[in-house]
Each structure stands twice: as C-alpha cells, then as structure tokens.
Amino acid sequence: MAVQNKDITYINKDFNDIRAQLINFSQTYFPNTYTDFSPASPGMMFMEQAAYVSDVLSFYLDNQIQETYLQYARQFDNLYDLAYMFSYKPKVTGLAIVDVDVFQQIPSKVVGSETVPDFDYALEIPENTSVSSQNGTQFTIQESIDFSVSSSIDPTVTTISQISLGEPTYYLLKKTRKAVSGTIVSTTFSLGNYVEYPTLELNVSNISNIIDIIDSDGNQYYEVDYLAQDLIYDSIKNTNVNDPNNYMDSDTPYILKTKSVNRRFVTRFLNENTLQIQFGSGKPLQTDEEVVPNPDNVGLGLPFEQNKLTTAYSPTNFIFTNTYGVAPSNTTLTVRYLTGGGVNSNIDANTLNIIDSTAVRFLNPGLNNSSTADFVFNSLATNNPIAASGGGGGDTIEEIRQNSLSNFNTQQRNVTADDYLIRALSMPPKYGVVSKAFTAKTSTKDPDTILDLYILTQDLNGNLAKSSDALKNNLKNYINQYRMIGDSVSIKDAFIVNIGCEFDIITLPNYNNNEILTKCIAAVQNYFLTRKWQINQPIILREITILLDAIPGVQTVANIQIVNKAGTNSGYSEYAYSISSATQGGIIFPSLDPSIFEVKFPNDDIKGRIVSLGTGTFSYGGY
C-alpha cells in the first residue's frame, strides 16, 4: 500500500492558527474516522490541548532566539552575558563624584634668614581613605595625598594660618582630590585544594569595583581585562632614587612602568547583585609564564606545530600558555570592594567634614616634638566646596546594549590617528596631564602608520607649556600597550603662539560705556579660554564680531586686531608669528608646524576701546 504524502503547514505559530490547521488536517485525511468537531467533543479537547502546547513551545522558542541577540534581548541576565561577550562590564550603580579639599597645618622654621614651612611635619594620606558627612554618607578619596609634593598637576596651596610677633608660626596646606561615593567593604574566602579556574561570587548590591585581593601569605592578585593579559601598569614615585634623570620634572608625580604579574583575576557581573571573580588555572610551582622570549620558546620550538610561518603570536600570550595565571589554593583571600552610589549620594556642599585618619601618617617618622606633631595631626580637615553629582542607578537595558556595541567596535586598540589622540588625553593624571594633543603624518609621502603626536601640558598657572621628558616617557609606555605592531609614533612638542586681542566698538546711546566695555572684555576673555582651544585651530574673526554684537549696548564692532606676543623676558613664548601674513578672508590660520594660539595674560592682553561713529572702520586688519 502506497504511503500518502500529507500536506503539512509549518508557518502556523499561534493557538488559533494551529487549532484551525489541526481541524483541517483531520477533515482532509481522516474524513470518516472522526466527524464531531463541536466545541464539547473529546476530539476537539485533544486538538486544542495540542494547539495550546504548540503555541507555548513556539513562544518559548521565539523568546529564546530573541534573547540571543544583543539588539533584541530584554532580560538583564542575558544582557549581562552578552555584554561580557562584547568585553563590556555593565555598571550596576552610579557613583557620585565631588572635589574634596584636604587641609593640614604645619609649623614654620627659619632657613638662613627666611621663615618657611617645615615640611618635615607633612602628612601622607593613603589611597582609598574614607571621608564622610554628619549623616553617615561616605565617600572615598581614591588617590593618595602627599603634602610635601607640589607640581603643576597636583599643587599644594600654602597660606599663612598663624602669626606671632610679625612672623608666621603655622602654615595651612591644601590639596584637592576627587572623591567618589561609596564604602569600602572587606570579605574573606577560604580556598582548599587546587582546582582549575577557581571562581568566587560576591552577592552584594551596588558593587562598583574590586579594590584589591590579597591572600594569607601577603601576595596580591591584580585585576586584568582578560586572563591571558599578564602586563599591568605600575607606578613608582618620581624621586631622585627612582629616576635620577627626571625627578625634577614637576608635571609627573609618578613614573609609569609596566609590570608582569602571574597572580591575576577577572571579574564579570552575572546580574545586578552578583559579581563573579575568576582566577587562572596554573599551579604556584608549575607556571610557564615567567619565561624570557627566545627562539626556543617562541619562533622555533612550538611543540604542537612544525610550520612556524603561519603561527599567530600574541604579545600577551607568546608562549601559548594554558595557565592564564596562578590559581590560589589552600589559602584565605581577603577581598576589598567599593559599594555605594545612588541618587542619595548627591550630597550638598560643605558636608564632607569627617576623615578617617586611621592610616594617615607623617612622612618623617623621626619627629622629636610630640606636642607639635599632635597639633598638626589633629589639624587634618576636609570639606567639599561644591555639591556632589553623578549618583544614580546602574546601566539601563538600552545603555547596556549601546555601550556593548560601542565597546566592541573600539576594542581599546589604536587603529586610527584619532585613537592615539584620545589615548594620549586619557592617560591617568598621576603620570602627567596631556592638555592638548594633535596627530599628523610626518610627510604626505609616508604611510598612515607613521605618525607624529604633538602634545602640550600646563604649568602651575594653567598656561600651556612644553612637556617634560618624564611625561613623554610615561606617555610612550602608556600608548605602547595599545599601539598596533606596525605603527611608528613620534612624540613631539607643539608650538605655542601667544597673542593678544584689541578691539574697537561703537555703543548705543543711553548705555553705560564702562559697563558695556567690561562685558565685552569678559566675553572675549571667555572666548579665548585655553581649555576651549585645540592645536591647529584657526581664529575666525567673524565669530568675535558676532560675540561682541550680541552684547546689549553694542551698536557696531568697528575693528578687531589680533597681535602677536613673543619674548621669554616678558613671560611669553619664544616663537614670533606674523599675524598679517597668516590672515586670509577674516581667518587667522596657524602655522604648518602644529601650533596653538594662546592668550597667556588675558587681563593685560585683551583690550577694548569705545570709539565714535565717525572714526569707526569695518576692516579686520590693524590700526
């Protein structure tokens, strides 16, 4: 007997369509077997149950497929897993940030015939020191404070606090640090015999990050982006002992070094309240990571392959290790982490007045005047002059989705010239601050992989200055970890062109001329703020004209003149620049060599004048 081919429809997915298809199938292929399709019949009961089960399975299948795509997933647990695949770590809390002023007093001493502060009594406040308000809201100062060090990026403001017989007896020192809302919490985990890739879980809400992990033997484990990464950034204080060549450079408090570590871990959020910590699989006495690269273990001696020409080498895993770091065993791990944040952490100004002085110490432990030392130690105080902001909830569903896609595209690698620009500007401040950066090809004939990176920093007064050798070395070490292997980057100083601005305006009747002129000068000063200008940015005179025209009481801008200010004896840059030759069509162009225009002394170099209507000219040249 031949088998009859039955027509089966696969596109029906909901209950009604599946039920109708089952009825049609029975009527077509079993017309004499079953004919009662009334709602109360036993046959219809089984058909509707089958349709119900099919509808549930269809919905479940569609939902599972949807949750595997980052663009459509809606369940937080699935989004966290997908974000991890894209190397993005979602934020589960929003920390508030605020500037905290930290004060201490120190006595004076006489050096020669001059009274100066006695920095032997300077205090050192370690990183992760807690400050709090009267209502118990806690913030954490993440960077250490050394009152004896003053640099362009970490100035120590010194003022006289007490005077006796016309001479200072005590000075007040002030430093400013960023503080984030949160409380440092410590917990311990006991690990037994060795296992591969041991995993721990912190089931706590509002976790910001892991501060450190230390085992019972005092060994520290370092957090990395992925377990194959064995190089981390390490910092040492910029002193004569650590760097005798660059210790005088005040724009780099710390020297940036890279450090190879075999004790490391990675973290990932499983959901809003669970942070997973994972270690490698290596045994403490059998790790294969502390190996010096040589032809035996890199280019010639790979045991698993004869053809070395097609082997893909990674600078983070060149020996093809399978350990990915040491797995802790038979020890107790102490984990410190930061938790907190939220809307309630956006506290008011002048409320962070309590500091935890438990770990605060004198830089000079050999002080012989205990009463003065006690007074200095008790003078330690804090305050936040402005309110904290930024506190809130963690990433929303859409933020996780968009941040993951963005993170996947960037991959923290320098591929384009702009990547090097952003990487230079994002170097941690303790290694030196790059205030301005610009990238350009050395020559139009050179390939895109040969770049010049022009940078500038700032001095104590906030004016642009050349970067020190120490800062350049730190920047070289920093961007080298993200540099493509074929790229060649030369770090150079950009040129500073100091300028002044002089303008004439005609005012409307019935206005106070002095008030109008003051507002005009303030507007031009704000226009030429250093933070608003970039290397190779031209001056568009039309913008200044529009800016002045918009001030109430200004009838006409009669004249605008940009003048060059040069000469180190007067405090300006040594570079002279022909403004008239560089002006075309109302635009003053910078030089071919990357340079930046700067008004160094805005109170002196920006001048305005009110003229009468008869003397006004509408040219953009000089007087």
Describe what this molecule looks like in 3D:
The chain folds into 6 domains: 15-67; 72-90 and 395-410, no CATH class; 95-182 and 340-383, no CATH class; 184-230 and 262-339; 231-261 and 412-493, no CATH class; 497-615, no CATH class. The chain starts with 14 loop residues before the first helix and ends in a 13-residue tail after the last strand. Strands 2, 3, 5, 6, 8, 9, 19 and 21 form an 8-stranded antiparallel sheet that branches. Helix 1 (15-29) crosses helix 2 and helix 3 (76-85) packs parallel to helix 5. With 623 residues, it is of the alpha+beta class.
Write the layout of secondary structure elements.
Layout: H1 15-29, H2 42-67, H3 76-85, E1 93-94, E2 97-111, E3 114-117, E4 123-125, E5 129-132, E6 138-141, E7 145-146, E8 157-164, E9 167-181, E10 183-191, E11 199-202, E12 207-214, E13 220-223, E14 231-237, E15 254-260, E16 264-271, E17 274-279, E18 331-339, E19 354-355, E20 361-362, H4 370-378, E21 381-383, E22 392-393, H5 397-410, H6 417-425, E23 436-441, E24 450-458, E25 464-465, H7 469-480, E26 488-493, E27 495-507, H8 513-527, E28 539-540, H9 541-549, E29 554-564, E30 583-584, E31 587-588, E32 595-598, H10 602-605, E33 606-610
Parallel strand pairs: 13-16, 24-26, 27-32, 27-33
Antiparallel strand pairs: 1-22, 2-3, 2-9, 2-21, 4-7, 4-20, 5-6, 5-19, 6-9, 8-9, 10-18, 11-17, 12-13, 12-18, 14-15, 16-17, 23-24, 24-25, 27-29, 28-31, 30-31
